[in-house]
Sequence to fold (750 residues):
Amino acid sequence: MHLWENMPFFLVIGSLVGAFVMAMFARWKKEWCPYLTIISVGFSFILSCIIMSRVAGGEIIHYYAGGWRPPWGIEMMIDELGAVMLLLLSGSFLLIAIYCIYAVPKEIHPSVSGWYYTCFLLTLSAMMGMVATNDFFNLFVMVEVTGIGACALVAAKGEKLSTEAALRYLILSSIGAAFLLFAIAFAYQLTGNLNMTYVAAELANIRTQYPVIIWVMISFFTVGLGLKAALFPLHIWLPDAHSSAPSPSSAILSGLVVKVYIVSIMRVYFLVFGFDIFTGTYMRYLILAMATLAILFGSFFAFVQVNLKRRLAYSTVAQIGYIFLGFGLGTVWGITAAMLHIIIHAFMKVCLFLSAGAIHYQTGRKKVTEFVGLGYQMPVTMVSFTIASLSMIGIPLFGGFITKYGIALGSLEADNPYFIALIVLSGLLNASYYLPLIWQAYFVSGPRIKLKMDAVPLSMLVPIMIMAAGVIYMGVFPGGALNFLGKAVTRFLL
Amino acid sequence: MDDYIAKVVFRYVTLVVIIYGFYVILHGSASPGGGFAGGSILAMGILIYFLVFGEHWRGRLREAPMDVAILFLGLGAAVEGIKFLVPQKHGLVGAPGTLFGGGWVSLANFCIGTLVACSILTIIYLLVKEE
Amino acid sequence: MTIDFSVLLLNYPYFISIIIFCLGCLCILTQHNLLKKVIGINIMQSGIFLFYIALGNIKGGIAPIYDPGLPEATLYINPLTSTLILTGIVVGFSVTAFALALIVKLHQFYGTIHASEIIRMRSLG
Fold:
């Protein structure tokens, strides 16, 4: 076994094997599960770091399963965006797994807590496979496994609301997967290949010959992956599912799961169809329109929510709109900002959801009107929460500012300055629903409480702090990430 | 199910169905079918038995399919992995058209068939238990 | 744009599979019974599976199993699509099983599997 050559394979299969080992331990030694999960995710994290260093050295990793070369075999390809996503996924999962040690016994019934880790690792494995694969059918299988794993993560709480939300999520995501499968059927029918690179090469030759089928295909891809990525009119499953799930699951779903679908859809648009077909079928303008609506309505809906996690979930809808807006602009700055926003939003949302979980853990509060005095009761959590919120609004020196600036530059590049007004407006809307929380926590005089440390275990505080530090780091030193992602963008716009 | 005709008929039909399931699994290398198709036939046979002569369903063996499924998942994955996923090692191959014409693949087929049967039974058992 | 109906008639499996797909979609969207929604998912997937099988089929082809007794120029059907659909069936099976488990759970909570009833009960409190 050559670990070096087969690294992408071990990356995916490592956590898959971990998932089934966890299924055995769930019935035998339940209390070992969290630690074994951390070991398994840590293995993936180390492998992703090595892959990242290889890709940073200028290498694009191709792996052929079983030595069968494309177009016959399954190919895995890890480019710059893929390496960043792998690192983001495994790193965030590692932090969330550490958070889970104390959060899971509190939120999930003990009889299923072992199985929770099975779903956890299954989702991680399928998501990494989805990012790494370069084969359409493999993509479909990974999409389905991610869907089932994510639904199980929602349903694990076992309450009325979460079961209902999980069922709705499952039904809608299987509709999405069915559309995706149909789109892949069209791709196979048209080109005779399932490898994305070969499909792209073939499509460039025949695009004038079969305009209608290509139109149908790109719309099916948009519906299928857009449903799973919660693009605005297709977002109806998201708020229920993300708010009723246990908080580690909410962090995974909101911060990471929807992002891998966005990465897939970006690959499909830019690497398979190419920019010309993307614009020529008017799909780009549709994406821009839906992203605009997502930003506005997501923020409006978030503004009226009373439940904290529901507010954060609707905020996710708006933030997904930013990512779609960025790559819908189709310029270098726009796509770079979209990629960067995938990373920064993952940091922010994971931090916010984990903080919400920690607040619920210590005080049992769930509503946005109950934040009075929290800044003195749990200072570490609230400082991290504040950092992530300010980043959401787009204050300079925080990560969110960089992407907003990038999208604004991108809209100037695309000769479409109206989107700058949209970004400013949405920044104001974000401020209107995040700032009241912070104001309440620090400045409203409730019952006089002295400043004291959080009564939350350290293993729950550390992931929150690291995520907040990541937000600040991205805001102060964005240069490295921008340069690195810029290489991926140049290949996207080839 | 308390039906006399069903009991008499399925006392014999079950065996035929199970044998047919094994036939499809083992001849996966020489005819259409294979692990998944044969495994589901096998599971249907056992399921009919459980539904008609239901008393063994609640017995001690009810959680056994899950263990067997996990065991054969590992075995099948290992054999499949040796066959397909490790580069350029394709194992031994028998004469085409014979029972073990596929070499390692026949063995993998058997593991997968048993795995599929056990997982279908496990899922149905879990659904029955929930009510 | 003119449509040549003889082409449609010649390629009738594609046509039927798309009709089945649409019927399944309609079934999911219009039925209030949750079990019927799950059946709708299965109908929709069957439509796609039929599409794939029609894609790989060659008229007069046989199952692609190598046999030295057959002549050289035997027509085989495309095995790739059948293999893909086998995977698709497994995935669809697991989705169905999971959905049924969730419906059993919902039936425990609410005593009904009607979506409209569940929404009404939830709005009452």
Q: What stands out?
A: The beta strands of chain A are 61-64, 75-78. The longest strand of chain A covers residues 61-64. The interface with chain C takes residues 137, 140-141, 144-145, 147-148, 151-152, 155, 158, 160, 163-164, 166-167, 170-171, 174-175, 177-178, 181-182, 185, 188-189, 194 of chain A (CB under 8 Å). The CA atoms of residues 82 and 131 of chain A lie 6 Å apart.
